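Curious: why this fold?
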Amino acid sequence: MRVRGLVVVVVAITCAAPCARAGGLYFSDRGVRPLARGGAFVAGADDMGAMWYNPAGLADAQGTFLADASFMLFGADFQRQDVVIGGGGALQTYNYQPVHGDLDALKMLAVNSRPDLAAARQGIIAARSQESLAHANGKRDLDVSFNYSHVADINSGAFFFNMQIPVFDRNQGEIARTRAAITQSQELAAEANEQVMSDVLSAYESVHTNDQIINLYRSGYLDQTTQSRDISQYAYQRGATSLLDFLDAQRSYRANQLSYRQALANYMVALEQLREAVGTRSLP
């Protein structure tokens, strides 16, 4: 009994797997005929291979002999990539790109790029053009004419001129209206400029805050959790730590990676808001 128990222990130790990998359970097709048929062997199972497809077919196997052995080794490597959906729905790999321009440079770029601010400035130009037209309409034209006549031996000529004297109507109302329109356009332009500056400042602060969070992860958090996971995996594979410790390190690693991806997503949103605030996608 002791010898039998010792044999069982030796066999168990020899056949024990050094590590366990979660990759699913897969069995390939067994036998030459099932492989040739692409696994369609349930109805035609009439040899010892029927134990894999249809055990009822073992009754037709009669005195056959089956020698079956297989070796399966599966491995897969995965590398995480951050992708964004670009124009037309195409997937594009996203690389972290910090904004190097300062706030003053972004404000100056927004003043020259924002379409709403440009429209407000054009409104001032249009209002001033209307004022010039109103002043021109307030002036009166001088009508000049010349009359010549020849009767018998007498030649005569006469000059006539006519000009309205604007005593009461000098287009004052239209001029006043255009001046008020200029003032209104200037106020709207000032409001648009303040809104642009506010949008740039808010978006810049959001980008700066999210950039600091990302730098915290990139400066050490990601490497520390990766090293902790690798060390725990190395120790677990060699029996120096328990499965629970390895799973806890794996959980911490994935939680940290998830937080980092969320920080990247927030940074991308803030960056798009900054581009919208500045009015261009080309940031310094």
